[in-house]
Specification:
Elements lengths: L12 E3 L9 H18 L7 E4 L11 H8 L8 E4 L19 H15 L11 E7 L4 E7 L6 E3 L16 E5 L4 E3 L1 E5 L2 E6 L5 E6 L9 E3 L8 E4 L1
């Protein structure tokens, strides 16, 4: 499908979206960055800028949208690749289908930011980016998520009401105990760290945030951009 355009020359690629790949997120984590590299090779532009929109909210049966969002981030390891987050623009009543939020102006604005940075070399502020997770064990287990310096000032918002059926909204943050079960964690912002706590547990092995079809989004920075969902193994 791309072959007829190989003689074209263009500045960069805007990719939106890919929800059908939710059936095979593990494969997508490999296939998506390989596709980007293949396009760069075939268009004879090794540094081809590629910017994509992370999949939005979706109320549907048999979905694995949360894992697909994580799989999409595998492309961020490539040079000149950027991501726009859209999962806080829930639009369950959209006449175009609930995975297509009507507020495309904001989707487009967020997609423009990495393009302005990578292509036009403008100094723009991007969304929060997780740096590392530090676990503390004892009577309770806590995990402190810190952010890279360029994230700016981190802001904790109150979660909005679930816009759809509760089963699609999940939890704000969860910790996984050693038996593999996920548990809703208490959370707070302390010294610019997002701290997750699970009481009565001696140890955990993973943490995740906003891992749901319609996640509760509570972490933003001071330019009103949300933290992408994450899963981190400790």
């Amino acid at each position: 499908m791309v072959t007829p355009f190989l003689n074209w020359r263009f500045t960069g690629v805007a990719w939106y979206q890919g929800e059908n790949n939710q059936r095979e997120p593990k494969n997508y984590a490999c296939a998506f960055p390989v596709m980007i590299q293949d396009w760069a090779l075939n268009f004879k532009n090794p540094s081809l800028p590629f910017f994509f929109v992370q999949v939005a909210t979706w109320r549907g049966s048999l979905t694995d949208i949360p894992n697909l969002r994580i799989a999409q981030t595998s492309a961020l390891k490539l040079r000149n690749v950027g991501m726009a987050v859209s999962f806080d623009l829930s639009d369950v009543h959209s006449p175009y289908g609930n995975i297509h939020p009507r507020n495309k102006t904001e989707v487009g604005r967020r997609l423009s930011l990495p393009a302005l940075q990578h292509i036009y070399k403008q100094k723009v502020r991007l969304g929060p980016e997780m740096d590392k997770a530090v676990k503390t064990t004892g009577q309770n287990v806590s995990v402190a998520i810190s952010f890279v310096k360029s994230s700016g000032t981190i802001v904790l918002r109150d979660p909005l009401a679930c816009p759809t059926d509760a089963k699609y909204c999940g939890q704000v943050a969860e910790l996984q105990t050693l038996d593999g079960k996920w548990h809703a964690a208490e959370y707070k912002l302390m010294d610019q760290k997002f701290v997750l706590t699970l009481s009565g547990v001696k140890d955990v092995k993973s943490a995740r945030y906003a891992f749901a079809d319609y996640p509760y989004v509570v972490i933003y920075n001071d330019v009103q951009l949300p933290l992408p969902p994450f899963v981190v193994h400790l």
